[in-house]
Amino acid sequence: MAKMGPLFAPVKQAGQKLYSKYTDQELAVILDFVSNCDKMTQEMTAKIRAEVADDIKTHQPEDKSDL
Q1: In the chain, which stretches have pLDDT less than 70?
Q2: Would you list the domain boundaries of the chain?
């Protein structure tokens, strides 16, 4: 696992370079926005999945095995 460190060093450096463009206050706002977007996306995904599941159940062909 120690061999993986150098592989990710450029990612760490790029992240530090990106973060250095923002103040702590700006990063806090960005974090809040991204966190809320993630929560909203998860909630909307669950809602859409539930609606699709209900549609599938509602439109299932009737069981005609008794005919």
Answers
A1: 1-2, 61-67
A2: 21-55
